[in-house]
Amino acid sequence: MVAPRLPADGLATRDWTVTDDGTVVCYASEKSHCVVVSNSSSPFVMLEEATLAHDQDLAEVTSKINAILAPLVNKHQKGGRHLCLLNTPRGPLLAWTREGFTRENDEEVLRRIFKFQAA
Fold first, then answer.
1. Structure confidence by residue, pLDDT tens digits, 74-103
2. Which end of the chain has fewer CB atoms within 10 angstroms, the N or the C?
3. Dihedral angle computed from the Cα positions of residues 81, 44, 35 and 99, in that order, rounded to the nearest 10 degrees
4. Contact in structure between 33 and 16 (CB atoms under 8 Å)
């Protein structure tokens, strides 16, 4: 099966699931539970200046996060993996994903693969 290509901006509405081998797959969907943050130089958006919603503190943290993530994104994109921010039942999760078509999420598979800590 040929997987669809990610849009250049990575902003298409996407959902995700986990295959039996633990691979997270993001796919085009009406749901927005998988946000692609794979941009080799700046995984998270940087603003030209601070705003009320994204103040100087957040700008500094975003810069530090990008400095940590950018080398990883560059390394793993060559293998066809994309860094995504997944909306999970326990909250946001950074995960390496592949693109493709999939079946519905299976809650038991998610618990087994991700081994969430007790809440």
1. 888 777 788 889 999 999 999 998 877 544
2. N
3. -20
4. yes
